[in-house]
Amino acid sequence: MGLDFSVLPPYAELLGVGLWWTIVLTVSAGIVSFVMGILFAVTVLYAPAVIAYPVRFFIWLFMGTPLLLQLFLIYYGLVQIGIDLPALVAGIVGLGLHFAVYNGDIIRAGIAAVDPGQTEGARSIGFGRWQALRYVVIPQAVRNTTPAVGNMMIALLKESSLVSVIGIAELVHASQLAISETYRPFEFYIAAAALYYLANLILEAGLNMIEKRVEASR
Amino acid sequence: MDIELMQRVLPFFMEAAVVTIEVSALSLVLGLAMAALAASAKLSGFVPIRWLGNAYVSLFRGTPCLIQLFLLYFGGPQVGVNLEPFAAGVIGLGLNIGAYMAESVRGAVLAVDRGQAEAARTIGFSRSQTMRYVLLPQAARLMIRPLGVNTIALIKGSALISAISVIEITYTAQRFISSTYKPFEIFAIAAVLYMVIIYVVARAVDFLDRRFAIA
Amino acid sequence: MRPSGSMVEVRGARKSYGNFEVLKGIDLSVERGQIVAIIGPSGSGKSTLLRSINHLETLNAGEIWLDGVQVNQPLKGRAFERHINGVRQQMGMVFQHFNLFPHMTVRDNITKGPIVLKGMGRDEADALAAQLLAKVGLADKIDSYPSRLSGGQKQRVAIARALAMKPKVMLFDEATSALDPELVDEVNAVMKQLAAEHMTMIIVTHEMRFASEVADRVLFMDGGAVVEEGQPSTLFTAPTHERTRAFLKKYLNA
Ligand SMILES: Nc1ncnc2c1ncn2[C@@H]1O[C@H](COP(=O)(O)OP(=O)(O)OP(=O)(O)O)[C@@H](O)[C@H]1O
Ligand SMILES: [Mg+2]
User: Fold this and answer.
1) What is the pLDDT along chain B (215 residues), one digit of tens a residue?
2) Contacts of C152 (CB under 8 A, 6+ apart)
3) Of C81, C85, C104, nearest to C161 (Cα)?
4) From the centroid of its chain, how far is CA A217?
5) Which domain of life is it from (chain A) (predicted)?
6) Tens place of pLDDT for every residue, chain A, 218 residues?
């Protein structure tokens, strides 16, 4: 059975929809991972021990285990304690939390690296502890960690393929559907890979632009 | 916590852990070999070779590992490559991590002070001699940590081969989660196994880092 | 227990780091509109004193008062936090290393405080920023980022940022020490202008000439205590203590 890429065009729309969901997943989980990452960083650094320690345990657990296992836990596991998340939500939560843990670590280091004089400058004007963090320290930490967090977003785009295993109709899942009808795995996985590659290039270009703008505003 | 259940499934998990370790170790070897090849290709003076190195790294880093595995395992037979799940897993993971490791190696070589290469060239060393006698020995130390990070990512990434039905830790966990309805107990076992393996690797990396620091 | 009618009042201030006592019971009172310069060798506790007035350092003993309100009140937790943020809004502090916010334009550096803390409207805050920048001679830098400014320009923006909160007193901690010599004068000129407007100021400085020009009163600190104080004319020309003489000799010759 040779290769025949003419099997692809009839499925262009299916793959297109799959790609669309991959983008939706990546963007939503990206936002979740960024916001939660900041939250994790602030919690680990400033929250009282009763909150900080459980969060640190969670971070430690999520850093040490595979994303796929975490997705199984969230999707098949939570149902059994009565939390029935739709697959799409489970996918976004799983991906979002997984990358939040890494973003949190990056941003925590970024916060620690901001000159203490910055906090003093803010406090001397009358900013409260939280206001100094919100207006002065966190924005600088986020700017300084843009490249590292950007790398996480690039990883997130590719790792979003894993949620196909819990049945979300993203690009990999769409390819599998097409394959089940055509029995042409090679052609369709090549097509999916090409689409990921393209999306990856676009994301990288976008992140480069953001980095340049951040760099210019300093 | 259902301790009785945990004791019952533990033997299955121990077998699965051996598979995870085997796959990881074999892909690590393949990955390091690919990384060495690709990094030297990328740093080569010969343009087509450099281009080949760039293409390998860019394609394997630019697409999901899961797709690479599927392509190899499900798509392979279409082009005459018939692999067992285990072999497909090792080759797929190895090729994938090799691309990341190549960047770690290249980054370490480039991080060696520029003056070092210039000094070597003024003595009369060739490009490859400079690499071999001056840059690589210094870069070796710088690449231990990044390669360690890659290795730990590889171990966690090995969970993906459950999708091509290799019976490793995550495959076993998934099977027991759906058959026992005790997700947290099962997750706990799998998590502990991964963490132990990763802990051992992290200590080994620390050890190597210290060894090379003295040298 | 309001001690007096002065703007800033420090009473029996003590501060230790571990076993090392940095402030050994300082008393200081600064009247409204008065300008006090603090001089003294490195490590004598000048910065610690100034930072304690702003409560960036917590005293082990003693009291700080600002315009009849105790700064270091024995409040706890949130209540103290609210109190100190209010008090700090009434004190401007200028640091040796500027501490401008690098991620904000000059305009935002100046307006962030009034907008967030005082609920000032954007337009009013912008007008205030423009007015203050004109005053420190940097009207054209309003949209620049701090990284594009020279040290002297940065310090003048830092002064404008502090003034935007309409403080009752300005605290300067070696505001010109980090500057290249040719940039010192532009910052000193701004401080002199504030002096002419009768701003209450406490100025820690290593520049004896500047201190003698602007200050109404000079304090000489050494080893965590005020050794001697007086009008610049007397303290600089006829110091009574041996330590003051030795210090001045070194500095005036330098
Ligand atoms: N956080 C701290 N921990 C320990 N010791 C400190 C701390 N801050 C200041 N000190 C010590 O307190 C003493 C007084 O410091 P301070 O900064 O007030 O001196 P200064 O008079 O401002 O000196 P300079 O002219 O060098 O700025 C110094 O010996 C200093 O080492
Ligand atoms: Mg000082």
Assistant:
1) 788 888 889 999 999 999 999 999 999 999 999 999 998 898 787 889 999 999 999 999 999 999 999 999 999 999 999 999 999 999 999 999 999 999 999 999 888 877 787 777 777 677 777 787 778 888 888 899 999 999 999 999 999 999 999 999 999 999 998 888 888 889 999 999 999 999 999 999 999 988 877 55
2) C179, C180, C183, C184, C186, C187
3) C104
4) 25
5) Bacteria
6) 578 888 888 999 999 999 999 999 999 999 999 999 999 999 999 999 999 999 999 999 999 999 999 999 898 888 877 888 899 999 999 999 999 999 999 999 999 999 999 999 999 999 999 999 999 999 999 999 999 999 999 999 999 999 998 889 899 999 999 999 999 999 999 999 999 999 999 999 999 999 998 887 76
First to last CA, chain C: 45
**Cβ contacts (< 8 Å) between A218 and chain C: which residues?**
102-103, 145, 147
Of A118, A124, A143, the CB nearest to C54: A124
Mutate which of C17, C95, C220 for ligand 1 pocket (most atoms within 8 A of beta carbon): C17
Q: Does A120 touch chain C (CB under 8 A)?
A: yes
Going B187 to A157 to A108 to B211, the CA torsion angle's sign is positive
C-alpha dist (Å) from residue C184 to A21, C102, C210: 60, 22, 10
Contact at CB, A197 and B59, closer than 8 angstroms: yes
**Integer Cα distance of A118 and C99 in angstroms:** 5
CA separation for the pair A5, A184 (Å, rounded): 9
Six token digits for residue A34? 């960024």
Contact C81 A129 (CB under 8 A): yes
Q: Which CATH superfamily is domain A22-216 in?
A: MetI-like (1.10.3720.10)
Category of A156 on φ-ψ map: left (φ > 0), alpha (ψ -120 to 50) or beta? alpha
- Whether C42 is in the pocket of ligand 1, judged by its Cβ within 6 Å, is yes
The whole-angstrom separation of Cα B78 and Cα A188 is 12
Nearest CA to ligand 1 atom 7: C17
Q: C91, A124: Cβ pair inside 8 Å? A: yes
Contact C253 CB / ligand 1 (< 6 Å): no
Output the six-digit token pair for A69: 């296992």
Give chains near B: 3+ CB pairs under 8 A. A
Non-local CB neighbours of A47 within 8 Å, separated by 6+ positions: A55
Domains and CATH numbers, chain B: 3-211 (1.10.3720.10)
CB contact under 8 A, A161 and B66: yes
CB pairs under 8 A between A and B: 111
* ipTM of the complex, rounded to two decimals: 0.91
Tokens for C215, please give them.
């200050």
Task: Looking at chain A, list the stretches that DSSP marks H as alpha helix, in order from N- to C-terminal side.
Answer: 12-46, 49-64, 67-72, 87-113, 116-125, 129-131, 138-144, 146-159, 171-182, 185-216
For chain A, what are the domain ranges? Answer: 22-216
Report yes or no on whether pTM surpasses 0.90: no
The minimum-distance atom of ligand 1 relative to the CA of C51 is: 18
**C174 C-alpha vs ligand 2 centroid, how far in Å?**
7
